[in-house]
Amino acid sequence: MGELLLITDDTHRGRRLSRDLGTRRPCHVHDLYDDALPTIGPTLIVSDVEALTSEAIVRLRRTLAQVRGEDVPYLFLVHGNAARSEAQARVLGATATAGVQQMLAAVERLQGASIPILARTRSAEARQFFQLALFSGQPITPAVADAGTELVVRAVSDTGIYDWVRAVQQFDDATHQHCLLVAALAAAFSGALGLRPTDRHRLTQAALLHDVGKIHVPIEILNKPGQLTHSEMAIMRTHAERGHTMLVGAGFDDGLLGRGLIQVHAITQETSATAAR
């Protein structure tokens, strides 16, 4: 996944936008009025210029001429007068225009919502392992869990967390999707923190196994599209205890497993809060 270049006439606003864009790919913010041109070779360019003065247009044109490579998509964010902005965007050769509120959806479309083959392959391998080894009803041994954990860690290292998430989100089974997403987030988060390989492995494994008790929950409850009834919710809530019993009975270290699950809970809470900001 290449770097995104955000050209702005307000660096404070640009940094706010970059926080949203940066959750999907690396994002570099460039001040339109900085005479030094960006040194990166972006694979996507977004311009966030509210005051479309003659000088701003000249500077934007100069920056684009220097850094926009062949076939690099360019998204022009519209501020104020939409008709005037659309005209300016056409003059500048923008691939597409969008309001700030529609920015993320427009970026998704422009970057080719195509998911790299490697990410599709790795996620399919992980899903197959998950189905056959963890949700097949067969005993889950530490050796089996170790193999699945290494598969996820290698996949995230090979594809990057962004493409992994996009690939896994294509799965139609909510439980498989959720467990593989949480495991990958744990692997990426622990890697970014610089944890030791053994600690990263333990955390990713706890994330991979945290919902394994759902094998005892009927599929019609797991995949029910609407709200669960009180009785269905009571059945659903048994999965944590049953999963813990399964794993301890299979030989997993109760103390290590418990600490790992506490850390997984903290990570999922933090990522949910980050996504909401």
Automatic annotation (TrEMBL):
In terms of CDD domains, this protein maps to: HDc
Gene3D superfamilies named in the record: Hypothetical protein af1432 (1.10.3210.10)
**Which PROSITE patterns does UniProt cross-reference here?**
HD_GYP
Please give the superkingdom of this protein's source.
Answer: Bacteria
Q: Which residues form a coiled coil?
A: none
HD-GYP domain residues are 153-277
MF GO annotations: phosphoric diester hydrolase activity
Q: What is this protein called?
A: HDIG domain-containing protein
**Which classification does the entry list for the species?**
Bacteria, Pseudomonadati, Pseudomonadota, Alphaproteobacteria, Hyphomicrobiales
